[in-house]
């Protein structure tokens, strides 16, 4: 009886009713869980998939940090979660911005927390991300992979939710003066991957990332010297040094739009006109949703 009560987080005396755990008991369990986690990591008793995705590390380390960030710092509001597939594959396509690609990480954490089955979003990243020693490993551990059609189609074929940002560095590295103006969506490779697998496309609009690190200027000669797509100047970087890495507390709104079916267009995956029209439809959907969200959030740093 007493053991059962302890397992349920309560303790009972010989004759009295059960009483809640004391604060020390809660911390005892947290310390024990933390030590068990470290023991599994050090002994290699954890699993990763063929892409290097480590669900346990993502749940125990990365998502708790991102959760605190998007809930408390960015005060994120989320709409349209019902449009995400409960099961099966889905291609989530979003706008990209903010100098640092924080919107992708926040989106992955938000989707996992708000989805009724707490599904993971497998992000597709640019080649440059996977040429950076530490960053590459972290991205792999959290479920990311290279933004190429073979990897995207493999993930979609396995029934995963896949996230892609077609603007790439053109979106992340645009000036603050061009905020919330979508850049070109490239050649629509993400559409081809969706068509070949008959996967629905779920556009998602993200408002708030533009104000986290507002890019006032791009020092192109320095960017070329460092082999970077851009070298940003923001209100806090490089003036404040490492403190410039702290994002501004902008108010975020994220909306998942109704899915666009593609299963009736599987035979048109190699038709440039079909691919272009569908990519343009996705882009226009996101752009219009951004305008609507901006009307809901007149103050970028409001409550």
Descriptive notes:
By secondary structure, the protein is α/β, with parallel strands linked by helices. It contains ten helices and eleven strands. It has helices at 2-7, 23-43, 55-73, 102-114, 133-141, 149-157, 169-172, 189-197, 220-226, 272-296; strands spanning 10-12, 18-20, 77-79, 90-94, 121-125, 145-146, 161-164, 201-207, 217-218, 232-233, 253-256. It is globular, with a radius of gyration of 22 Å. The model is unreliable at 1-15 (pLDDT under 50).
Concise structural overview:
The chain has ten helices and eleven strands. The protein has 303 residues and is of the alpha/beta class.
Topology of helices and strands:
Elements: H1 2-7, E1 10-12, E2 18-20, H2 23-43, H3 55-73, E3 77-79, E4 90-94, H4 102-114, E5 121-125, H5 133-141, E6 145-146, H6 149-157, E7 161-164, H7 169-172, H8 189-197, E8 201-207, E9 217-218, H9 220-226, E10 232-233, E11 253-256, H10 272-296
Parallel strand pairs: 3-11, 4-7, 4-8, 5-6, 5-7
Antiparallel strand pairs: 1-2, 8-11, 9-10
Q: Please report the total strand number as a whole number.
A: 11
- Please, what is the average pLDDT? 88
Query: How helix-rich are the residues, as a percent range?
Result: 40-55%
The radius of gyration computed from the alpha-carbon positions, rounded to a whole number of angstroms, is: 22 Å
Largest sheet: number of strands, sense, barrel closure: 7 strands, mixed
* Structural class label: alpha/beta
Strand order of the largest sheet: 3-11-8-4-7-5-6
**How much strand content do the residues show?**
5-15%
Name the poorly predicted regions. Answer: 1-15
Number of helices: 10
């Amino acid at each position: 009886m007493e053991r059962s009560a302890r397992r349920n987080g309560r303790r009972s005396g010989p004759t009295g009713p059960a009483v809640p755990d004391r604060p020390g008991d809660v911390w005892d369990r947290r310390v024990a869980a933390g030590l068990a986690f470290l023991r599994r990591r050090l002994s290699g008793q954890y699993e990763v998939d063929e892409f290097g995705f480590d669900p346990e590390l993502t749940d125990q380390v990365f998502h708790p940090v991102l959760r605190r960030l998007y809930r408390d710092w960015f005060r994120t509001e989320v709409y349209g979660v019902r449009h995400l597939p409960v099961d099966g594959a889905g291609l989530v396509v979003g706008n990209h911005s903010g100098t640092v690609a924080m919107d992708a990480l926040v989106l992955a954490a938000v989707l996992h927390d708000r989805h009724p089955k707490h599904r993971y979003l497998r992000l597709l990243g640019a080649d440059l991300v996977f040429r950076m020693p530490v960053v590459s490993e972290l991205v792999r551990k959290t479920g990311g992979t290279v933004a190429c059609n073979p990897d995207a189609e493999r993930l979609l074929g396995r029934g995963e939710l896949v996230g892609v940002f077609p603007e790439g560095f053109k979106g992340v590295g645009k000036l603050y003066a061009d905020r919330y103006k979508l850049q070109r969506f490239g050649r629509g490779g993400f559409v081809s991957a969706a068509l070949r697998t008959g996967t629905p496309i779920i556009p998602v609009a993200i408002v708030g990332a533009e104000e986290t690190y507002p890019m006032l200027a791009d020092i192109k000669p320095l960017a070329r010297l460092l082999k970077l797509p851009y070298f940003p100047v923001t209100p806090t970087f490089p003036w404040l040094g490492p403190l410039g890495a702290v994002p501004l507390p902008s108010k975020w709104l994220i909306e998942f739009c109704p899915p666009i079916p593609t299963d009736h267009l599987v035979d048109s995956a190699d038709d440039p006109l079909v691919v272009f029209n569908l990519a343009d439809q996705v882009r226009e959907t996101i752009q219009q949703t951004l305008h609507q969200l901006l009307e809901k959030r007149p103050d970028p740093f409001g409550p």
